[in-house]
């Protein structure tokens, strides 16, 4: 009988201590033209460095190559993102070229996995459309010059708790039935 109480206590503690899980939930980004019309700053660039700002945030310094919507970029433009995809962070790698769709957030340029940001090598469909925009383009090689919604996945946690509780009750019932026989 002590085993049953121990098992029931363990199961109850496990259910109570289940923590909330945060996950990234994205709204499908629009076309390059739609994103430009929303005011996104769209540019290509090479990641020069990645610096951890705090436990969750990164600063990615990007050397611009070409901008389709803004001439406000500097020789090394800082872009903010989070350090993991569960928080919608984009996984940049130093030395690689990207097509970046950035937005202004708290006075900084930011991007995430919910934008059209991608490796420049895979942006073949975006570049021709960007080149057709009625914005002035800025070539930084000549001049040398971010729809989320972070949600808490409570429904998944609730389902997990219910499944654990049902399994526990089933196991407890099975043990009690076996003991009475």
TrEMBL record:
The chain crosses the membrane at residues 158-177. InterPro entries: TIMP-like_OB-fold. The keyword Signal applies. The keyword Glycoprotein does not apply. Coiled coil: none annotated. Residues 1-22 form the signal peptide. Keywords: Membrane, Signal, Transmembrane, Transmembrane helix. This is Tissue inhibitor of metalloproteinase. It comes from Candidatus Dojkabacteria bacterium.
């Amino acid at each position: 009988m002590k085993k049953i109480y121990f098992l029931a206590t363990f199961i109850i503690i496990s259910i109570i201590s289940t923590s909330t899980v945060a996950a990234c939930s994205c709204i499908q980004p629009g076309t390059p033209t739609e994103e430009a019309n929303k005011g996104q700053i769209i540019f290509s660039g090479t990641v020069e460095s990645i610096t951890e700002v705090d436990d969750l945030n990164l600063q990615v310094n990007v050397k611009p190559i070409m901008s389709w919507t803004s001439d406000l970029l500097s020789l090394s433009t800082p872009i903010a993102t989070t350090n993991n995809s569960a928080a919608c962070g984009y996984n940049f790698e130093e030395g690689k070229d990207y097509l970046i769709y950035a937005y202004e957030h708290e006075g900084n340029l930011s991007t995430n996995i919910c934008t059209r940001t991608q490796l420049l090598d895979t942006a073949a469909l975006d570049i021709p459309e960007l080149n057709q925009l009625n914005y002035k383009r800025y070539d930084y090689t000549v001049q040398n010059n971010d729809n989320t919604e972070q949600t808490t996945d409570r429904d998944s946690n609730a389902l997990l708790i219910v499944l654990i509780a049902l399994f526990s009750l089933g196991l407890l019932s099975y043990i009690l039935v076996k003991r009475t026989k």
